[in-house]
């Protein structure tokens, strides 16, 4: 199994396989990679005759077989894409013939004609989902590509490419700031960049533009919550908590993000005490440079002992949330008060 970056490198080197199984949360990146493979492999003048696309919720094996076996016209290759191939999920109800379809495809991929490139992709239901057993079974017979979330410098590099593709330059500081504010989902990234480009027209993008057009994301909310805790302002932290919960985010998810924030702070605190450079921390922790700066400053408000104690309180709250009785919101409010008075 390879990742998005390795796939991009292979495409650039014309190292293109006959069968790809793609999966992940970022459908936009999958579609981009498919377009790049198409441009590299199929004669653009005869693309409509050598490119077949099928809906994974309705496709039959015979459709795939007929398309793959058809000899390309005025091109060395033809390409067949099955999008939203829900039958690749272990819990698939999207295609009533899922089991039969998987078995037939499994047998066929080993003998697929050399003139054909077959690509099937499945979009995860959420960012935490992992490649299914069905997908992993194809790993030795096809090129399986997991489109995990891009992080750190990889995410920043991709975002910059999108700005450039729109004919828009953005300064390094503004790019870092944008990446720290936008949700890590390429569909959303494209929409937000489009809004910024339309809003700023020919002038340079500023941090004020980004603040004006982008909605605060969950990471910002959690950072603000922890910041209020560090300032011993539990009432303000609880206000932020109420805003997050009003958005429909569950207590367990909020607690997970708070724990993650403290774990990152502990890693940064230890790194700074060991005189590791900011660049090293960014690389090791896969952080956006702007976020790393903010967290280094935030760490100055906490001792290592206080961070460890905060994590202990979070773990105790996690146990309480898993119990049946009690109001989750009340337990989160108690957590914030306990963290603020350490």
UniProtKB/TrEMBL annotation:
Keywords: DNA replication, DNA-directed DNA polymerase, Nucleotidyltransferase, Transferase
A single MF term (Gene Ontology): DNA binding
Annotated Gene3D superfamilies: 1.10.8.60, 1.20.272.10, P-loop containing nucleotide triphosphate hydrolases
Domain of life, source organism: Bacteria
One cellular component term from this protein's GO annotations in UniProt: DNA polymerase III complex
Domain DNA polymerase III delta subunit-like C-terminal: 220-338
DNA polymerase III delta N-terminal domain residues: 20-147
Reactions catalysed according to its record: DNA(n) + a 2'-deoxyribonucleoside 5'-triphosphate = DNA(n+1) + diphosphate
Biological process terms in GO annotation: DNA-templated DNA replication
Enzyme class: transferase
Keyword match Glycosyltransferase: no
Coiled-coil boundaries: none
Known EC number: 2.7.7.7
Family of this protein: Belongs to the DNA polymerase HolA subunit family.
NCBIfam families for this protein: holA
Protein name as annotated: DNA polymerase III subunit delta
Originating organism: Clostridium felsineum
Phylogenetic lineage: Bacteria, Bacillati, Bacillota, Clostridia, Eubacteriales
